[in-house]
Amino acid sequence: MTQDFFTSAIDHKLFQRYDPGRALFRTYIRTCVDNHLRHQIESDSRIKRGGAVEIIPIDDNTQSAEPDMEAYFHREWMRQLFTLAVDDLRSKCEQENKHIYFHVFELYDLATERPTYDALASTLRITTTEVTNYLAWARRQLRQLLLDRLAGITGGESEYNQEVRFLLGWERR
Fold it and tell me: What are the C-alpha distances in Å from 44 to residues 39, 57, 61, 62, 70?
C-alpha cells in the first residue's frame, strides 16, 4: 500500500503541488495518504467482473481504523526520518574515518539486546570510557543529522519547531 501511494504520488506530482503556506508538510502528506486510501477502498469495494465477493475481515476489530491509521502514519514518519538519519551517520563516519564510532553505536543503540558498556568494550578491545565517548559523539551527530533532515522538509521555522517537538519532545532554542 505504501509503495502504491508513493508511485501514485510521483505519477500525479503531488510533492510539487505542496504549498507550505496552506498546511504543514506532514499534514499535506497525511491528507494525500488518506485520500489515496479512500480511493483505494472505494475501488476495492466496487463490484467487478466475477460478481460480488464476500470479504471476510481477518480481525474482528469493531473500532474505527482511523486512530490506528493515524498512529501507523506517525510511527512510519518517525521511523523513516530516523532511518535516513542513521544512514547519514553511517556515511559521515565513513567519510571521517570514524568507523569504530558507528560500529559501537550500531552494536549498542541499534541492537535488539543491548550489551553492557563493559561487555562491549571487552568485545571490541577498547576501554569503557571509549565506548561512552564514541556513543556520546554518535548520538550528538545523529541528533544533528535528524534535525538537518527535518529542516530540509519543513516549510518554515514554525513547522520545523512543531515537528521537532513531535519527534524529540523539545524545541530548538
Answer: 8, 14, 20, 20, 21
